């Protein structure tokens, strides 16, 4: 028994040492579930690391939580998709610079039999209004994420106050929300990247796309050195610059799922 | 689809995928280290509460018992606020590291180990008390004797703690960040794959996790039975 | 026998065992008087057998004398300097969940006997009580008689000046009873003061030097064994010795 105990102790000590040994040159990037779930980071981060030797550790959360992480000084860099929120973040002094990196778009997903007849809508506003009129089940992220914020703006555009039995706020990430929609045969708005990579579609299908208001812009933020001097600003700046450089933009364009390009670089 | 998941689990195990291996090893490291630290703190704490009478002892027992049900995400949030740069221990730079995950799991497991060991030690003390007093033992001297004599019961308690640590996701997700290759463990990987709609892979990972936990339990049971037969 | 044990033995052989004195000792629990008040002195050679019907307070008296309980009234005093080394053997031996020899080593360890002599002392004691073959067996799988002998061996290694035994043979078969009684005599010969309860009058006849007779929580008489068995004074003792049912 004592021998066993010693063995266990030795093993665990070794583990403790192993846990503490990690690379020095890394930054923590707060970003959104949509970019992580689609596999974009898996494709572009190795290229960045190869070019600069900097490891990027992605904490994928909702946009609201990503802002909060950056505000508290827990992330070195921020890549999110809520342009209005990003500008407010700069105005509040937490970030110094913002750059457009890429966009994808939102798409409207729903059950194949399409009870609200969204397929024939001429605009996003019309499609959203049709869902509200039919009181067809709609699952919303409800988590203050970039996608959630965009969805709420679209309801406003459609002149609808989403409320009632048919409107379900889940408080979940994009993937779980799609899983729920699949189980409920509900309509749901998703970013295209997550939808294309999503594996559990069941009866769901893409019903509406292409309206300009569904445009989903991603921005990279340089965080304030003044607010959080301890952050790795040098490394974060390298990352920021690489993203909007030719190499970075090409890496984004090269990322494809099932032969389909999911993010469109548009740095200026 | 369930068949599919078993197939996925099997092929994950057979192929010994490098990233899966890393995730499994990290899961075990984090949870075992957390359980060990919690045991070093929790067993003496439980034994002390069993041995000493002090004002507020009833309250301590109630709090320990209640904390056994502490939601992992609350533990995660507490540790997050503690380790966040804006928090009191932010300077350590521990957030989003395996160390942070260990701390969060210690917070989760400690009440279980302390509360259950308190109960086991108190039962045993009822049986031993007169003999101990007769031998002239102080309460402090009784503690190691009781903990050693309760070792088989405490092994089960340890397994309960390990079960909680290895099964929880809320706390490690919050303080670890589920960073690929750094803080991704079995449970957070399962959440991620579920989010991607990769349900067979998620279930496959779940089966791998369950298999591991079962192996560890079987090993502990075997060691326990063997030594129990030897030591009585 | 090691030098340590030998010296302890020598010292206790030269000096008479410490005398025990109860002065108006009473014990109540939740306002109910369970024992006393009683006053007596144990200063003879003994062994002292505490006798009386069930519920007379025999076990209680032993626990008070040994210090497991504190009297609610009165005073318990020992002759000589401080509290003498003492041990107690219970009706149901309380053994640790370890091997027989580890039980003895534990008792030595908590009494601050140096580590290097512990296992020698323990093995010697096991041999003396016929338990050498069981040294590495788990204590709790031993037979009832072996367990009680192990409890006696545990008391033995501590070289007590006073040994309390509370109905040590009531759960044992005749062969085991014989072994326990032999052990008690051995302690007695070593100069240990024996204070033992029993409800078995035949056992008392075999072992007693003097008898402390209790009934209803009161000491009815304290006399040499011969006097107690032949000419008991108190009506309760007369009835007890005559084999009547006494309350």
TrEMBL record, chain A:
Transmembrane segments: none annotated. Keywords: Signal. Residues 1-23 form the signal peptide. Residues 28-246 form the PBP domain. This is Sulfate transporter. It comes from Marinobacter profundi. The lineage of its organism: Bacteria, Pseudomonadati, Pseudomonadota, Gammaproteobacteria, Pseudomonadales.
UniProtKB/TrEMBL annotation, chain B:
GO terms for biological process: transmembrane transport. The chain crosses the membrane at residues 20-52, 59-83, 95-116, 146-165, 201-223. Signal peptide: none annotated. Keywords: Membrane, Transmembrane, Transmembrane helix. GO terms for cellular component: plasma membrane. It is found in: Cell membrane. The keyword Transferase does not apply. SUPFAM superfamilies: MetI-like (SSF161098). InterPro entries: ABC_perm_TupB-like, MetI-like, MetI-like_sf. Residues 24-220 form the ABC transmembrane type-1 domain. It is a multi-pass membrane protein. Coiled coil: none annotated. NCBIfam families: ABC_perm1. This is ABC transporter permease. The lineage of its organism: Bacteria, Pseudomonadati, Pseudomonadota, Gammaproteobacteria, Pseudomonadales.
Automatic annotation (TrEMBL), chain C:
GO terms for cellular component: plasma membrane. It holds the Pfam family ABC_tran. Its main location: membrane. The keyword tRNA processing does not apply. It is found in: Cell inner membrane. It is a peripheral membrane protein. Belongs to the ABC transporter superfamily. This is ABC transporter ATP-binding protein.
